[in-house]
Amino acid sequence: MHALSPQTPSLIRLSDYRTPAWRVETVELDFDLGIDASELSARLLLRRDPTQDAPLRLDGENLQLLSIKLDGEQLPATAYRYAGNVLEIDGARDGSVLETRVRLRPAANTALEGLYLSGSREAGFLLTQCEAEGFRHITYFPDRPDVLSSYTVTLRADRARFPVLLAGGNPDGAGELEGGRHWARFVDPHPKPSYLFALVAGRLEVIGRDYVTADGRAVQLKIWAEVDAIDRCHYAMDALERSMRWDEQAYGRNYDLDVFHVVATHDFNMGAMENKGLNIFNAKCLLAEPDSTTDDEYRHVEAVVAHEYFHNWSGNRVTCRDWFQLSLKEGLTVFREQSFSADMNSAPLKRIEDVALLRRAQFPEDAGPLAHPVRPAQYSEINNFYTATVYEKGAELVRMLAGALGRDGFRRGMDRYFERNDGRAATLEDFLAALGETNHIDLMPYLAWYGQAGTPRLKARGHYDDVRHEYTLTLSQPASGGNGTEARSPLPIPVKLALFTRQGNMLPLSMDGQTSKETTEMVVVLDRIEQSFVFTNVIAAPVPSLLRGFSAPVILECDYTPDELALLLAHDVDGFNRWEAGQQLAARAYENLRDGTANDALLAWCDALALLFDNDAIDDALLADLLTPPGEIELAERETSIDPQRIHDLRQALQQQLAERLGVDALRQRYAALATHTNSELDAVSQARRRLKRRVLELLSLLDQAGACALAAAQYHAAPGMTDRLAALSVLVRCDAPQTVAALRDYRDRHAGNALALDKWFAVQVQVPGEPALARVSELEQDPAFTLKNPNRVQSLLGAFVRGNPSGFHRIDGAGYRLLAERLVTLDGLNPQVAARLATAFNGWQRLEPRRRDAAHEAIAGLASREGLSRNLAEIIDSVLNH
Ligand code: B3K
Ligand code: ZN
């Protein structure tokens, strides 16, 4: 082989996209599987684009090439070259067959990309992860999503060591081989991109269920897990069945193979993966049982099972042309998953949860050096772009489109999108075109949302004319970018609104003299820099409820008085906006405390919540959310010079004021009343009670720490399920209560051998606020159960610390930053994807107060100066440092 200059440019640009010069019509893969070494023969039927003249180039990384044949002839070494992770081959023509044989080293693969081992050499199993570019770690291939091929996969392995052999597609035979070996073959009738390829081999147990699709296909649903986990798969099976029915009803989408496999692994870089016919899940997103799974985790399992299943249409049948279109499948599928969860549970609570996540994870991303558009223009390492922006903001954009079209219009558009693009690799333009054309609306102005980074600001001001009885609402969007850097063109911003009387009733809305008694809510779309909307026949100065249901992902600036926000908090019938009014009011109350200004917002917030606390009509879970002010990360977003310790202290003080207003007796009584219903049932009422009980206990701990900790200790020991147990443990840890040590020891013994429960044991302990957290982290790193090799464990200790505990991580002496930088170096050598994700905790360092900023800068610059960082980590560090 001759060396070439690297073929892969360091920056991949959307504007450089070209259709593939070579496609692969059929792929036959034959694996001989082993833990240390696996061998794979690949037979590719090649198709050349007659309009292009490029040589055959295939991606391949870390492969040991054993043999290479073109059209049956062994290739001489002069006929191919390998450089820059690209294999270039001479002499191929349209219809040529390329055969390669490579050796892979699964047990040595700590990056968990390509073919790797989950668990121990003795008991673990083999599996693959290909999205985004893992297939090139398995064989030489044009590893890009717009090359769709038909796959036939044959697996061979020792029967005793690998009794279960699985690949995507339909089973197509299995049998015995000599020497205790066996084989199994799978044929996928649906052409797919290489990132959706998967195999699994090892000792796994299974639960099954028969399912018949709405269009009459009999499907075997099978969930596979290791023997100690298989009993925890039943909830996921139910969730899968609910997801399949829902997609049939809500979108008319049916499953399209005879089998659907789902596999749980403890070693996975992300939540789960939608491989065609063989979804693979991080165990934490699949396993569930009352004794070790919290209510939030149950809902998460349901959501992720649905998400991966929904990808079968939004992602697999219709895939992405290139990775810049990632949000085409991810934003859409998150939106579908959110709608499903809203239907299965409570719609307003779901909306609150989603928007809280957006603000906690996406807004800070969009406001700092890692900001990028939902459709980025360029990347160095695509795995760094599986971000809150692509997923969560992407889902908000689909939600806006769905809102603009209405329920039926959106369904019509989606039907068209699926039909027209079935079996294709599509773009965001294809998506907007299908939705728009079926509804005779030009949706292309929404493309601007996909191309701009930063959270847009929306200003609203109202003017009431008491002579004409007109209310004029003026909406505007500043022309500069959300993070102040780039100029923007105006975006279409749909604003769902209602007008309230000062008594808390909704007014009928009339615009341009058109009165309709029934209309109390409407959507206006701001698509210029500034626009005024005049409402007529308005009997008295109203209080507007704006952006209801969070109708656009913007930061709303409206000069409400505290009383107006309190009125919406008390009366808005839109559950989301009621919560939102409370959040705005709480943020103002926080500013009262911070600035030592008049306590008007603080009083209004506490008074309004005190009334709601005594209101039996309000749902317990909603009440729990209303009683929770914005988190420390959100509050930091409102500051220019961030001192995380001060934010923590002020937020504690804010909650203490609320607790005092509610009163220690009322809190104790409420706790006692809720505790009489203690159970581990999963119905909405039981879950809501647990949620409120936790919140009440937390508030109580701010007034009567010893009393609350005594209750927490009792709750811990009597808890019938994980939600109550972990809530109690969390209160004990945060208060550093004397009962904590015994409870932690008990938890450890009780859940010995349950990795997911142990993850929570690590995570809860590093939530202790402030300076002491770091010592706790260091101590826990010495625990024999801690390892940097397992992504979940890394997340539960280091991730929970750097992301979930701002006052602990951002120590003024910079020790938190140094610890993170040191661990990143080690982690990067093992698993670049996990290292890069953890490194995003440095995002936003420029806005820290000077001492912390300097310390963070030193740690990041130190990392940046190191040789040999992975492309993943280098890209994040470079962006964080230089943008
Ligand atoms: N599509 C996968 C994510 C793949 C991440 C690659 N680094 C899971 C999902 O979004 O459903
Ligand atoms: Zn997804």
Structure, explained:
By secondary structure, the protein is α+β, with helices and mostly antiparallel strands. The protein contains 26 helices and 33 strands. An eight-stranded mixed β-sheet has the order 6-5-9-3-2-12-15-14, with no helix packed on it. A five-stranded mixed β-sheet has the order 17-18-19-21-20, covered by helices on one side. Strands 10-11-16-13 form a four-stranded antiparallel β-sheet, with no helix packed on it. Strand 20 and strand 21 form a beta hairpin. Helix 10 crosses helix 13 and helix 16 packs antiparallel against helix 17. It is globular and about 90 Å long. It starts with 11 loop residues before the first strand and ends with a helix. Zinc ion binds next to helix 3. The site of (3S)-3,7-diaminoheptanoic acid has 12 residues, from strand 20 and helix 2.
Q: Structural class of the secondary structure composition?
A: alpha+beta
User: How many distinct helices?
Assistant: 26
According to DSSP, the number of beta strands is 33
**Uncertain spans, ≥5 residues at pLDDT below 50?**
1-9
The share of residues in extended strands comes to 15-25%
Mean pLDDT across all amino acids: 96
Query: In which range does the helix fraction lie?
Result: 40-55%
Bound molecules: (3S)-3,7-diaminoheptanoic acid, zinc ion
The outline comes out as: globular
Largest sheet: number of strands, sense, barrel closure: 8 strands, mixed
Largest sheet, spatial ordering of strands: 6-5-9-3-2-12-15-14
Distance between the termini: 40 Å
The value of Rg in angstroms is 28 Å
For this structure, the quaternary state is single chain
